[in-house]
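Two folds, back to back.
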Amino acid sequence: MNSTMSLPYHLKKITILDSKKIKFKKKNKLKFSEVSDLAYKNSELFAIGDKGILYKMAINLQNDKINSLDLLWAKKLHDNHGTLAKKNRDSEGLTFLHDNLLISFEKNHRIELYTSDAQRVQSIQLHKDLSKSKNYKSSNKGLESVAYSEDYGVLTAPEKPLKGKKYHVVYSKDNFWKFKADGEITAMEFMGKNKLLVLLREFNFWTRRRVTSLVQVNLKKCKKNICKSKLLVKLDSSDGWKIDNFEGLTKVGKNRFVMISDNQDSFFQKTLLVLFEIKH
């Protein structure tokens, strides 16, 4: 983040507790790069890369710090035929469903269940609005995010609203919830029983301006499926924030989350891991 700030850095609704630049040596000849999302459980941090690679890390979070982060292994996603075909590898969203992992994909828009060892288990049925590729703004504006709870089931959202939609829309298999927010959805995670934390990004190619936003969406406070949303923080590079392409998000404790940036396999971009707390 901003190199001149001291941590923790207190904003109105969140506190940035710690941030780390991540760089690992290759594991199993696989580069740690283009990380799109995170999933946390029992001091283990899983990450999914854009090219169908699953990473497992051991993370130590104590005293509001990222004390250590070690890459344990990297594995290509597998189905019954072996590693995924190139056209099926654009993996973007990640979350736990009990002891397995839900992974969402772009281009060939879908959600699949995998073991924590990178083996495909089954496909997850999508809402009917998400089942046709022609409904998406483009093949690269698909299912960047996935979340799960016992009450709501598997939730996902297109990066940009589908054609003809004015609001961002979160979908389950049989239901949907609209909310208003600027930017493109890159990740979401349950904050509590009925509240979603949504990570959004904006990027201007010409000015190189980047914006990262965190929005709280209350799935229980909705009128005509339009839900109450609240902007928690908006980090804008034009205000001096040294932010990168944040795409991943996961909950690591009460009111505590980490988010990660996708370096897009570029020498000029970094993989940043940021630990923050939401104030109540």
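---
second:
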Amino acid sequence: MTDQLPPQTTGDDIPFYRDERVLQIIAQVVSVVLIIGFLVWVTLNFFRAAEARNLQLSFNFLKDPAGFPINDPAIPYDPSNSFGYAFYVGILNTLRVSLIGVLAATILGTVVALMRLSTNWLVSQIALAFIEFHRNIPLLVLLFLWYFTVFNRMPSVEDSLIWPGPFIFNRRGVYLAWPRLTETGTLFAVAAVLGVILAIAVFFILRKRRELTGQQTYYVHSSLAILIMFPLAGWFLSGGAPLMVDIPFLDGFNYSGGMRVTPEFAALLVGLTTFTAGFIAEIVRAGILAVQKGQTEAAKALGLNPTQVLSLVVVPQATRIIIPPMISQYLNLAKNSSLALAIGFMDLFSVGKVTINHAGRAVPVFLLVMSAYLAISLITSAILNFYNRRAQFATR
């Protein structure tokens, strides 16, 4: 007597209302319909409420003259320019303070982290005091501290504080010597920019070739040679004088020439830099400590000095740990720049607020401000996440 196996069912024999795949598809379709329906309901109610309150939602006002000044604009600006142009200047001001702040905070935070790891007790405690001070004080209070107690307490123009350089400090800002292009300097500037672009391209191409073939390509030396030769060639082709140093000088009741940094911009930049550097220092310190001690001991056993151990062994491995939390700090710095409103610097948010007072279009202006901050954050995240993926170890 043979055993009879029960008939096996196939997918076609399962009713659709019990098929897991069909149920998942139905659930997704229902979810999408509900979400779209909710968004449509919210949008329609928003427009009904705006119409009932006589709120204008168009962006036609961007073509009208702004009628308000912007102190320390990144590009030339006049109150007769349009609201759209003023908004563009505000974006440039935000990008200017954000980019400089990110670079300065990264350098300062890394230095403080290395000081914190120092075996010298005094140096380590100074770094600890810096970190704890800036991590436990609100940024707005720190901005007030720098603006009202430091930069607004500078001497008058007649009693300006002059340091070698020259660096001139007074209540109207910081004046410093600044290089400017001469009439023949355009050729030098073009050659320098081409040299930087070509040096970066050669660096990555030759390094990739070395990884694929194993042959020595001298990608560092080649890149440095290009980086030096192109500006040098532009220097000679421009007649040997492509640059001039514009030195500030006292002209009547104020200083002229050079580059002027307003007290508002200086206070915002210093506040953002020191505040963010306190957090970056802890991130860098944690990344360095996360590298296994065996790596350091092996490097010392090979005869590397402490500087080589740090630059060739510890930092490349710590970078992979440091980058992800560092991205968040960079984004926070860009968004925290909106506190410039409290000390009078005209950034993106400040220009938006003044635009609302002049044009009376709160909803369109806030949509523009939010879209601009969102674009800045998404672009920054995309660039840094791309670098983060390239810096990670390849797993198999």
